[in-house]
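Quick one: structure for this chain?
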Amino acid sequence: MYKNVNEALDFLSAFRERGERDGVESVICAPFVSLPALTEAAEGTRIGIGAQNMHWEEEGAFTGEVSSTMLNALGVGYVVLGHSERRTHFAEKDETVRLKTRSALDHDLVPIVCVGETLEEKEADRTREVVRQQVVEAVRGLSSDEMTRVILAYEPVWAIGTGKSATAEDAGDVIRFIRKTVADQYDQQVANEVRILYGGSVKPANIDSFLAIGDIDGALVGGASLDPDSLSQLVEAAAERRGQR
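Got it. Here's what it folds into:
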């Protein structure tokens, strides 16, 4: 919940100069009020625009909510689902994440589905159990083709907005486990095609260590994305890393 419409447009203008790099898919996921202006301003660029949440129904008596059809009509291409803050503060459940994922795919939105454990679950050695359940429930009922359109993001709750981050090795271990979970539900080819991001206090100082891990396909960035220069540095790091692969 940052930036009014004018601030968002200023951000996009500043970011656009460095945010379009070959081989890197850049997406700005903004509050609902800025989406119409951003989709228009981003037209003709390679920068995608996404929402931070949505409801699973197309319409109805859900005051204050926004549907996938509304986002699609705006030209929005992506939507973040199941973010830890939605799960923690707004009672988001695995079932509602599944319903939203289904709705997003039905209306040509790319769902960015977040999974991750709390500090208590991590300390109880339940990371894999929790993450597996969240992944399995979110994609339950999807076809193989639909699954390859989903982006998964591992964001350990204990690392969101705390300044703490998992080590690159630990993040890689969990993301490899997530990919194996997808392979168990579908097959290895589908698992290889699914993009899996890491999110959790990612910043210019540590981005390269995460992208050096082969199974980590990118980053879901929080605080470091509020400044266009910082986000540009992340994109540049990703472009350089991709060039090395």
